[in-house]
C-alpha cells in the first residue's frame, strides 16, 4: 500500500457469501455497510468492508513489569465496566489499586492479558483471563473496548487471541460471565461457540 501511495482498500461481497465475509474480517477489514445493492448487474444484499492503515489495530501481550501505565488503564476500565449497566455504580482509586495488585500477584503462567492498540488513539481495548483452580480451565475476568472502536471486530479478535493462548497452554475450557443486558457480547459469545451455563439472579429491597 505504501508503494501505491494509498492507505485504504475497499472490499465488496454478497451478504450471503459467508466465506468471503470471514476472510475479509480475518484480514482486518471492518464492515462499513450492509444492505441492498447491485453486484454483477443483479440486485443482492451487499457487504462493503474497509481496510485502513490509518486505523490499523495492533495486538500485544501486556508486559506487566514495563507497562505500568497500560496496566493502570486496564485496571481502571475493568472497574468501570459495571457502570455500563449500573448508573449509580461508583469506582474508587482503592478499587483500581487493588485490581493492579491482584494482576501483579497472579503467577505469570496463570495470567493472560492482551490489549488492542490503535495507531493514532493508543490503547483501545483489552482482555484479561486467569487460570482457574483446575489448570485446564480459564475464566475471563474482563474484556473491554472503547465506545468509538466498537463494532470493528476488536472484541472478537481479543477472544480469538485468548483461544490461541489456551491452545498453546493446553487449556481446554474458557469460562465467562456476561451481564444480561450486554446483548452484543452474548451474541458474540454464541457465534464463537460459547454455551450458556449457570444463571445468577438477585432479589433486592428486602
Task: Characterize the largest beta sheet: strand count, sense, and whether it forms a barrel.
Answer: 5 strands, mixed
- Percent helix range: 25-40%
Strand order across the largest sheet: 4-5-6-7-8
Q: What's the total count of β strands?
A: 8
Shape category:
globular
In CATH, what is the class of the largest domain? Alpha Beta
Instruction: Output the radius of gyration.
Output: 19 Å
Output mean pLDDT: 90
Strand content: 25-35%
Give me the strand/helix succession: EHEEEHHEEEHEH
Structure description:
With 206 residues, the protein is an alpha+beta fold. It folds into 2 domains: 8-54; 56-191, 3-Layer(aba) Sandwich (Aminopeptidase). Helices cover 29% and strands 31% of the residues. It has 5 helices and 8 strands. The chain has a 5-stranded mixed β-sheet, sandwiched between helices. A hairpin with a 3-residue loop joins β5 and β6. α2 (68-80) crosses α3 (93-105). It is globular. The model has no long low-confidence stretch (mean pLDDT 90).
Summarize the structure.
This protein has 206 residues and is an alpha+beta fold. The chain contains five helices and eight strands; from the N terminus they run βαβββααβββαβα.
Task: Give a quick set of tags describing it.
206 residues, Aminopeptidase
